[in-house]
From TrEMBL:
All copies of domain N-acetyltransferase, residue ranges: 7-151
UniProt entry tagged with the keyword Transferase: yes
This protein's name: GNAT family N-acetyltransferase
GO MF terms held by the record: N-acetyltransferase activity
CDD domains referenced in this protein's UniProt entry, alphabetically: NAT_SF (cd04301)
Keyword terms: Transferase
Pfam families, A to Z: Acetyltransf_1
Spans through the membrane: none
Native organism taxonomy: Bacteria, Bacillati, Bacillota, Bacilli, Bacillales
InterPro entries according to UniProt: Acyl_CoA_acyltransferase, GNAT_dom, NAT_camello-type
Length: 151
């Protein structure tokens, strides 16, 4: 399926996200809608220390996956990061694109946090995240999975 590159996104509004919005809504997810809304209103622009937004781009430079890292807004502990607003365009799934992006987000999280959490409620996503080393247990507020980093 070609070569893909993970890049940090400095301004989400530089990208046309209509395809992401339409597809995610059809699937019953509000992930991308929340990403865009929060970014536009300034409530989450992934620009604080320990936060970042990454995209996966295909050979033509088209954005095909997106995902972010925030300090966990549901925890008072500073050592917990949260994987957020993760979405892969449907025709690019099951090709390692999601794993490529999550691996980059984990690498980034290790620089700032001791624990990385996320929330998902689908069986497919549960299998995906556990295959990457996340443990399924709601030990942390508003999360379904976590990963601890050894110091």
């Amino acid at each position: 399926m070609g070569k893909f590159e993970v890049k940090r996104i400095s301004n989400l509004l530089d990208f046309d996200l209509n395809r992401f919005l339409e597809q995610s809504k059809k699937e019953g997810f509000r992930i991308v809608e929340r990403l865009v809304t929060d970014y536009k209103n300034g409530s989450n622009t992934f620009n604080l220390i320990g936060e970042s937004l990454f995209g996966v781009f295909n050979e033509e430079g088209l954005l095909v996956a997106i995902g972010g890292l925030n300090k966990d807004p549901f925890s008072k502990e500073q050592c917990i990061g949260r994987l957020r607003r993760f979405y892969v365009i449907k025709e690019y799934r099951r090709n390692g694109i999601g794993s490529l992006l999550v691996t980059k987000l984990i690498e980034e999280a290790k620089r700032y946090y001791e624990i990385l959490v996320l929330h998902t409620d689908t069986e497919e996503a549960d299998k995906f995240y556990t295959s990457l080393g996340f443990l399924k247990k709601n030990l942390y507020p508003s999360s379904s999975h976590y990963m601890e980093f050894k110091s």
